[in-house]
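user:
I keep going back and forth on a fold encoding question. Separate attempts, laid side by side, tell us more than any discussion would. Would you put together a sequence-and-structure record for a protein of your own picking? Write it directly below this note and I will take it from there.

assistant:
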Amino acid sequence: MPAKFDLNDSSVVVIIGSGAGGGTLANELAQKGISSVVLEAGKRIEIADFKNDEDAMFALFTWLDPRTASGSWYVAQTSPDLPSWTCKLVGGTTIHWGGVALRFQEHEFKTRTRYGALTGANLLDWPIDLKEMEPYYDRAELKLGVAGTHDMPRLPASNHCKVLFAGANKIGYKKYWTANLAINSVPRDGRASCQQAGFCVQGCTFGAKWSTLYTEIPKAEATGKCEVRPESHVLKIEHDKSGKVTGVIYVDKTGAMQRQRARIVCVAGNSIESPRLLLNSSSGMFPQGLANSSGQVGRNYMRHVTSLVFAAFDKPVHMYRGTANGGIVMDEARFDTQRGFVGGYNLETLPQG
């Protein structure tokens, strides 16, 4: 049964966010007998609430709170109030994602070394490399059930995937296949295999796609060591005179302010909400915000850059037949300094109405 902890219980670990990071951490702690309170800004819905309906599900779980983008970049100039395609609900964006689970390539850990300085960009190497990350990639792929890894069969090519592959082959590409997806290709971990319904990003009605909503979080709650509090929006992290974190201030679903004490606080929001919270947690001791002695929190934000190409076909493709993120073409993701640009890119298909 899910636990219920007192607001003054300072023995708990407070986890802010219930998505890929927060939900997984809650379960890892619970399995080791460590108590946690997960504070999630959004509501809790279950698989029974999912519908194979793009508009209905976008309205149900996309984070539609008003946002404003500023600066000279394209999005700020054209769509400053564009909603973020993150999810405000228990399970976070693991409900909405397409399941693509790729590893960094070796050269991508050391982009500054490989490409050199880049004018107008703050390009740096990662302090880790592929060899160091490989055991963690293995662990994650096994937990998520990533098809195409560790002898787990790849999922079949979707209809739109077959169109992509035909085009890739025609122009001479060689590295194309169905993507490594965190979607069961066979029944696994108490979850069904993919039924090829095509509405992966609307919430998988079969539970084949990995999401903390119905994997990590229920397992954590079953230990009696985890409490999830939906509709609990954290405003500030507090600390004592020594600088040690003591708890958080949050607004509950009634609009009332609450203080949850904690021995440790884990910030596991998304790339927008985590910096917001750390900056809002400024104090006399930490005037620039928590964990921000470098002044870099909230800077160097980079969106998931995507260029879209739309096409009309003379015959029906039936793009809903198969996984949403079906195939991937990786020929252009290679390390190549002779092409006139830094980095590379993948070609993917994603059906949208």
